[in-house]
């Protein structure tokens, strides 16, 4: 079954899906994106993802490429045409195609690309059973990581470094020694008293949609959450550690910089958050 992509108004074979060489996403990383999980035939938390997309576009003064009402139809159509029941749908909006000049071009239409791809839920469940390892790296990103920009080179380099060290995620560490977030996920710990701790999202991290929904999952499970910074040392001594993102949900972390977290096995609270997630998350039929 050939994969299909949406590119600026057309559904095309994935192999023939192109944008122009002077697209500002390609030349300046002048664009934003969203990744929604597709689970059991539903697009997960789509309204929240579109709300964050709106914020990213507004912060960068990029116009919506289509109306806000039409985008869900395109997302669903790409998911449907690719027969994705479990996997993800990716959307990217750039400022559009224009002769290379740093300042905003006048009258350029934003570019919209949407792709979808399958993932194996059994493989994700297996990964959660074993947990993942994290490598810490110094924060070296710009100040506006609250915008979901396609400018991800520091994240690429950090995650490559993590991979070379046998880890599956990199954690950016602030100058004051506190954990900011992962290369493509938010960071959490659970204290000895069973309290969930995650850094406030007003500044310095991306406000993860999964993170937001996990606040509701935690409330349902009667778990307390503290929004505050935590150090690498506190994480290493925590009862449980996990990351969250659309593609990982709540994923246990079993080692940080080669040192085991707790007994080196996934924690039960993280697994219960993971299990309860889909009962709480908003599910739009795909
Ligand atoms: N990344 N922080 C960063 C830097 C991220 O890139 C992501 C998501 C998150 C979690 O956000 P959410 O819960 O909305 O997925 C936090 C996506 C999955 C990616 O780039 O592939």
UniProtKB/TrEMBL annotation:
Top-rank taxon of the source lineage equals Bacteria
Report which reactions are catalysed by this protein. L-leucine + 2-oxoglutarate = 4-methyl-2-oxopentanoate + L-glutamate; L-isoleucine + 2-oxoglutarate = (S)-3-methyl-2-oxopentanoate + L-glutamate; L-valine + 2-oxoglutarate = 3-methyl-2-oxobutanoate + L-glutamate
Q: Which GO terms describe its molecular function?
A: branched-chain-amino-acid transaminase activity
Q: What is its EC number?
A: 2.6.1.42
Q: Which GO terms describe its biological process?
A: amino acid biosynthetic process; branched-chain amino acid biosynthetic process
According to its UniProt record, in which pathway does this protein act?
Amino-acid biosynthesis; L-isoleucine biosynthesis; L-isoleucine from 2-oxobutanoate: step 4/4; Amino-acid biosynthesis; L-leucine biosynthesis; L-leucine from 3-methyl-2-oxobutanoate: step 4/4; Amino-acid biosynthesis; L-valine biosynthesis; L-valine from pyruvate: step 4/4
Which Pfam families does this entry report, sorted A to Z?
Aminotran_4
Identify which cofactors the protein needs according to its UniProt entry: pyridoxal 5'-phosphate
Its GO CC terms? cytosol
Leader sequence range is none
Q: Which UniProt keywords apply?
A: Amino-acid biosynthesis, Aminotransferase, Branched-chain amino acid biosynthesis, Pyridoxal phosphate, Transferase
Q: Which InterPro entries match?
A: Aminotrans_IV, Aminotransferase-like, BCAT-like_C, BCAT-like_N, Class-IV_PLP-Dep_Aminotrnsfr
Q: What does this protein do?
A: Acts on leucine, isoleucine and valine.
Q: To which protein family does this belong?
A: Belongs to the class-IV pyridoxal-phosphate-dependent aminotransferase family.
Which named protein is this?
Probable branched-chain-amino-acid aminotransferase
Could you tell me which species this protein originates from? Mesorhizobium tianshanense
């Amino acid at each position: 079954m050939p994969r299909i992509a949406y590119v600026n108004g057309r559904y095309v074979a994935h192999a023939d899906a192109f944008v122009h060489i002077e697209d500002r996403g390609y030349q300046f990383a002048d664009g934003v994106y969203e990744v929604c999980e597709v689970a059991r035939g539903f697009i997960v938390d789509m309204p929240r993802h579109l709300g964050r997309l709106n914020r990213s576009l507004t912060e960068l003064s990029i116009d919506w490429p289509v109306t806000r009402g039409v985008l869900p139809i395109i997302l669903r159509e790409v998911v449907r045409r690719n027969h994705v029941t479990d996997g993800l749908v990716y959307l990217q909006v750039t400022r559009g195609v224009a002769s290379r000049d740093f300042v905003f071009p006048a009258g350029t239409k934003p570019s919209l690309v949407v792709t979808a791809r399958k993932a194996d839920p059994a493989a994700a469940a297996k990964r959660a059973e074993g947990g993942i390892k994290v490598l810490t790296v110094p924060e070296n990103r710009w100040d506006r990581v609250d915008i979901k920009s396609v400018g991800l080179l520091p994240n690429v380099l950090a995650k490559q470094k993590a991979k070379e060290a046998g880890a599956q995620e990199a954690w950016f560490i602030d100058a004051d020694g506190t954990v900011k977030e992962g290369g493509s996920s938010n960071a959490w710990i659970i204290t000895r008293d069973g309290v969930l701790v995650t850094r406030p999202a007003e500044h310095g991290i991306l406000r993860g949609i999964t993170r937001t929904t996990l606040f509701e999952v935690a409330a349902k499970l009667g778990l307390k959450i503290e929004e505050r910074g935590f150090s690498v040392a506190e994480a290493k001594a925590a009862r449980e550690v996990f990351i969250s993102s659309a593609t990982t949900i709540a994923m246990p972390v079993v080692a940080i910089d080669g040192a085991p977290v707790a007994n080196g096995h996934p924690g039960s609270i993280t697994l219960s958050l993971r299990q309860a997630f889909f009962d709480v998350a908003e599910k739009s039929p795909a």
